Amino acid sequence: MFGQKLQQFFYGRNGPDQFGFFMMLLIIPFALINNVICNIIAWLLLLFTIFRIVSKNVSQRRKENIAFLKIWNKIKKPFQTAKERYNERKFYKIFRCPKCRQKLRVPRYKGTVKVRCSKCGDVFVRKT
Ligand SMILES: [Zn+2]
Questions:
Q1: Closest to 97 measured CA to CA, from 124, 57, 75
Q2: What are residue 107's DSSP bridge partners?
């Protein structure tokens, strides 16, 4: 019964989205800091988060979420690239072109190889 009522309540409402979850995480440090201004910020964030969850203006909330995801993906990208590099370190070695500083990925354990830069065409010899 309760689940049904909850479902009815959320029908046509935005509900929690990625932006909402991010805001909820953001509230925690503000709420924990023993400072009036930080606590006010925490309350405002909480009210804004609740407002977004129960909001019926779903198209506007979706726009906000998309805008958030755009920024979030930009923040996330360098970490993701670093993680991918770390995961593939067994199979590839990264060299920098001595001429243009372009990063080049070369398969490992191929002995001494000639590497041709994909950007400037410079050729240099490296041990893999
Ligand atoms: Zn180059």
A1: 124
A2: 92
Q: What is the pLDDT of residues 74-93, one digit of tens each?
A: 999 999 999 998 999 999 99
Determine the distance separating the centroid of ligand 1 and the alpha carbon of 67, expressed in angstroms: 35
Measure 106 CA to ligand 1 centroid, in angstroms. Answer: 14
pLDDT above 90: residue 58: yes
- The stretch 36-45 carries a mean pLDDT of 96
Query: How many angstroms is it from 99 CA to the middle of ligand 1?
Result: 5
- In the block, tokens 């920098």 appear at 96
- What is the DSSP code string of 45-114? HHHHHHHHHH-S-HHHHHHHHHHHHHHHHHHHHHHHHHHHHHHTTTTEEEEE-TTT--EEEEESSS-EEE
Mean pLDDT of all residues belonging to the chain: 94
Helix (H, G, I), strand (E, B) or coil at 1: coil
Domain segments of the chain as ranges:
2-87, 91-128
Please give the distance, rounded to the nearest whole angstrom, from the Cα atom of residue 121 to the centre of ligand 1: 6
